[in-house]
Design brief:
The chain is built from 5 helices and no strands.
């Protein structure tokens, strides 16, 4: 049962990523690679929040599997961030790559903290 729900959540996460990316690039066409950066930070924040709820608020592990692995796994995209980092040049590539890594870890930590407040 949980497998099917996780797969469905992953599909919804992928559709959500596509929509956020599509509408962001239409609104701000020169914002490369902003949408992917925002998607990965937002997904990391949500993953951390769910982990915080599981660790500190007694929420069942099933939610972490469905939302963290399913939805956020489909929503976030390391592969696109890697391609965008390679396509960027020089300092911009370094800033984007390091910013994505550090920003995602910090966002996850903030999410865990917020989940622990609930």
């Amino acid at each position: 049962m949980i497998f099917g729900v996780t797969v469905l959540a992953g599909a919804l996460g992928a559709v959500a990523r596509y929509l956020v990316d599509y509408y962001s690039r239409r609104r701000w066409p020169s914002a490369f690679p902003g949408p992917t950066f925002a998607i990965n930070l937002g997904g990391s924040l949500l993953i951390g929040f769910i982990a915080g709820l599981v660790m500190f608020a007694g929420v069942g592990h099933g939610w972490q599997v469905v939302i963290g692995t399913g939805f956020c796994g489909g929503f976030t995209t390391f592969s696109t961030a890697a391609v965008e980092t390679v396509r960027a040049e020089g300092r911009r590539a370094v800033v984007y790559g390091v910013g994505t890594l550090v920003g995602s870890v910090v966002a996850c930590g903030i999410g865990i903290w917020l989940g622990g407040l609930v």
